[in-house]
Amino acid sequence: QVQLVESGGGLVQAGGSLRLSCTASGRTFRDYAMAWFRQAPGKEREIVANIGWSGGSTIYLDSVKGRFFMSRDNAEKTVDLRMDNLKSEDTAVYYCAADRWRVGRRSSDYDYWGQGTQVTVSS
What is the C-alpha separation between 73 and 40, in angstroms, rounded? Predict the structure, then answer.
């Protein structure tokens, strides 16, 4: 098993920036694919981005391309999501997820989840 804890959320004005961090425990972190999901009130959970073992990342949400950037640091066992030019529609709980084998885009592709961190963007 791997344990995941998100941090860095908060209240920010539209146009501002935040950096979310996910800290992992475990002895084989570098073997896991990682992802960020988000869930807005009344909405389905959706993938934001994922990243493979070697650090190549993919942004899936067209609405955040060019504004959000995902990276990982295997030495520190952390995964970050840098969010620039935030908009009110980015308001959601953001979740970190991990899987041993797949670099998927569905919630069901991931075996391990953090508890989430709230991001609220005011206009």
Answer: 27
pLDDT, one tens digit for every residue, the chain (123 residues): 789 999 999 999 999 999 999 999 877 777 889 999 999 999 999 999 999 877 789 999 999 999 999 999 888 889 999 999 999 999 999 999 999 888 899 999 999 999 999 999 999
Q: Which residues contact 11 (CB under 8 A, 6 or more apart)?
A: 120, 122
With vertex at residue 92, the alpha carbon angle to CA 106 and CA 8, rounded to the nearest 5 degrees, is 100
Helices of type H across the chain:
none
Specify the 3-state DSSP secondary structure of 54: coil
Burial 55-76 (b: 16+ CB within 10 A, else e): eebebeeeebeebbbbebeeee
